[in-house]
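A note from the maintainers: we've had questions about how concatenated examples are separated. There is no special marker in the raw files; a new sequence line simply starts the next protein. For clarity in this README we add a label.
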Amino acid sequence: MLKSKGYKEILGINRRNQEYIRPYNSARAKNIADNKILTKKILTENGILTPKIYKVVKDRKQLEFLNWDSLPKSFVIKPNKGTGGNGIIIFYGKKKGETAWIRPNGTVMSKYDISLHIANILDGRFSMGNKKDAAIIEERVKTDPFLKQYSYKGVPDIRVICFKGVPVMAMMRIPTRRSNGTANLHSGAICTGIDIATGITTYSMQMDTKSLLSDVYEDVESTTDLEENKKLSGITIPDWNKILEIALKCQKVTKLGYMGVDISIDAEKGPVVFELNARPGLGIQAANKAGLRSRLELVKDVDVKSIRHGIKIAKDLFGGEVEESIEAISGRKVVNIIERITLFNRQTVPTKKRGKDDKQPSKAFMDTSILTSRIAEATANRIGFLSTTSYFNSLNVPEKFNTLKEAQEYIDENIQALTLEEGIKRIAKITDGNDVKIRPVIEITVGIAEEIRDFDVIIMKDLEYPIVIGRNELKGYLIDTTHTF
């Protein structure tokens, strides 16, 4: 059930089939998406990564002579023409000394158990129309370390709905204990909406098992099966632009006009396409608290010139209000990757009655790869730290040290002289390529995202930006990597 301002714009199954699947998905295109082996072949030929196939079992004779010893410790079994995630089994390890493999919930399946499951796949138990099928034994994707902290043993995947060359809606499906480590929503996985413009998660839902109605979702704020439950809103999906690009490339090579692309992020390979869906489910609307119908109508008559153009259209149309919604549900403000800030002059107390000369506008780069923020020496001089930089430069400190230990020993021996000037709060050691340097740390006052805060910053000789803000100061913010001020 979906309760939101977009409730009247919800896309139902009949309208989806009549207005989007039948007119825009040819029989040939649907055949590609419905056949996972064919999908992998076409995507691989076009340079799109998919999980590696270890074996394909097409009949019972092949099953009878399957070389079990050749199977790795972890793998996935899935039906070639399965629907809705049915029939997929994930194995995370092999039981020592036995021909048996371990599932995410800890249960063990013997060779006999797995053979029985493959036989059911061959008989068409999980395929469309219960037609005879083939079983795929393929590589298990290793979850990206960042996303792994939100998932119960399984691999989260990102579904992107694409229509006529534009990604119109996206969600992340997160495995839970209830879903047995799979990303199947009907089995109990969590669906989390993703803002198309930024790649940041918004709302989260899970199937309500207590409801007598089908496809009823309830709000979820955090993970529930982990040692430390994590808040689900405000997650920045890695490689977001690349994910959108891959999704549209899949649409281009398959010629499916309306489709869902399921992508996971492998720890080593990056984004990998799990599968394509010519009839994607509609639960993604619950995850985003928005209807698909209005979004599809917006792009129905748009002339998309390229993949890059399609992504730009999506971000322009569907990312306008994300900052407010994300701030509301995550409690954190959104800042741009390059943000306009205000630097207050040294010894100026920021109050409501500020003079024109008390502050000056500047721009800052948000850099989560560094811990302590940094400021260019010229910028520090302009806001009143000329005496500080002149003093430190007069000490003839060595330009570089060979090791952090060597730099620390120098600081310990000269700490009194290094911090004699009142503006120097402490001395920091930094690595610059293979070199180690020591630089002074000062405290500055900054206006950012309608807040006034005091920052510790390291004075640097050369920086690309006037100030670079590091992780220490970014804990309360979400970074929108798609925009500058």
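[label: protein 2]
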Amino acid sequence: MKYDFDKVIERRGTGSTKWDKCPEGCLPMWIADMDFELALQIREAVVKAAQEQVYGYTERSDLYTQAVKRWMESRHGWKIESEWMCISPGIIPALNMIVREFANPGDKILVQQPVYYPFFNAIKNNGCEILNNPLVYEEGSYRMDFEDLERKLADSRVRILIISNPHNPVGRVWTKDEMERLGELCLRNGVLVVSDEIHGDITYKGFKHTPFASIYSCFAENSITWTSPSKSFNIAGIQVSNIIIPNEKLRARYQIALENTGISRINIFGLAACEAAYACAGDWLDKLLEYLEGNIEYVEGALSESMSGVELVRPQGTYLAWLDFRQLGLDDERLEKLLREKAGLMLNQGTMFGKDGSGFARMNIACPRSIVEEAVERLKKALA
């Protein structure tokens, strides 16, 4: 099928968080959903579900389960079992339940900043302490600091390590070797790995997403992986995700946490959308990745040609551009003022992702090329 990713869809006034919470006159390039029309197969599946005469309680069907399993195996080489799959209406509720169930107030949870900021809220809201293993930025890319990681994992109060792969916001797709080293350190220290793989389908040429639990069975037994079609297929508002837990004891504890929260089912439209995405919309995703890579190349070219003082940390995955403004010599308050008031751009400021994001900003490039071009022009004029 032919897909028109250049089509501009009017989203203001639709209840869109991305657009309707953006100040008038600003271009919203912040929250991580896309401005592209859904794959037709997903829309048709949701419409079909809406045409049912009864919206009763709904269970996952075998077709749904098989669609998820086939997707994980064909796309990522990870053969999962049906019983490993658990539900959640979203990643953030699952994260909060996991922290509450697998750590006690006062325990430490390790993250790698700059990183997805809701991790911080889930840790603090449940009485735990954030322990940072900051990523190292050098020669235009990020790497893990394994020496620091090893020291901090030795702390007996560390219960959980949350890894973002592909990493939001810096765009790294962690290699199998990196994941092996991290997994071995966690096993040695009895630390549970919670792997955020919600961007796992969005990787670019030359890079491959490796699910953490797919590497070794011992890693699978010491991990909880969360996945969702929400980022890959632009259905974040549908509220559906799959939490994959191979370890039977960990899975039982997660199920108890679900029951204690009162969550027992996914809504009928989420089930329909997820099944259709994984079963029928792979070609749409393949074409989307080509388009996104074109957007990245456009931003990179424009920055290198006409905007000194701003550099793109080229993403290996995700549709998020991590921009380095540190050469401008502005503090974070002045940088935000430049972007919001001078350029008319609403980006995510780097400090949202931890102190290691100071001097950076995150720009969502999952939108028609014309919007990306306008954003670049606004930035260019503000810097001039």
